[in-house]
Amino acid sequence: MLSLLPGPATMYIVGRSAAQGRRAGMMSVLGICAGTLCHVLAVAFGVSAIFAASQMAFMVVKSVGAVYLIYVGITLLRSREQTIAAEGLSIIDEPPDRIVFAQGSLTQLLNPKVTLFFLAILPQFVIPSFAHRPAPFLLLGAAFVAIDVAWFSLLACGASAAAGWLVRSPKATVNLKRATGGLYVLLGLAFLRERSHSLP
Hints:
The protein is mainly α. The protein has one domain. Helices cover 76% and strands 0% of the residues. It is built from 8 helices and no strands. The longest helix has 30 residues, at 22-51. The protein is globular. Mean pLDDT is 75; it is low at 83-92.
C-alpha cells in the first residue's frame, strides 16, 4: 500500500518517465530504490545495535512505532481531493543517466518519512530475542525494496497513462490514501494490543 501511495518517489519516477522515456524512468527507479536501501541499512544496523543492550528499549520503540502508524493513518484518512499535477509531474530537462540516478537517490535519501516508516514498521515483525541482529531487519527491508522495484518498474513503463490518470482522478487518489490510512490505523491498534498482552 505504501508503494502504491503517490509521494515524492512516485512523482519523480512518473515525471522522468513521462518526459524522457522508459530508460530514464528505470534509472530513476534504481536511484529511488538505492536510496531506500540506505534507509534500510541505517535502521537495520542502528536499531539492532541499540536493542542489543536492552529488550525494554526494543519494546518501547515498537510501541512508539505503533502509535506513529496510527497517527499517519489518521492523517491519510483526513485526506481531501487535490490536484497532483502541481507536485512535479512535468520535467523538461534531460540530464544523463547518472544524474537521473543520483537525483533519484537524493530524493529518497532526503525524505525523513522513509526512515520514520522503517523505524516504525520493521520492529513490529521482529521477535524480541532476535532484535539485536540486523538480519531480520535486512530481510524485511529487502522484501520491501523488492516490492518497490516491481511496482515502480511497472509505473515507469506506463508513466504517460499513469500520469494522466493521476491528474484526471484526484478522487481516486484520495480514496487510495484513505484505504492506506485505514490499514495503518488497524495495524497500529493490532500492534498496541499485542504489546499490552505481552506485558506482565
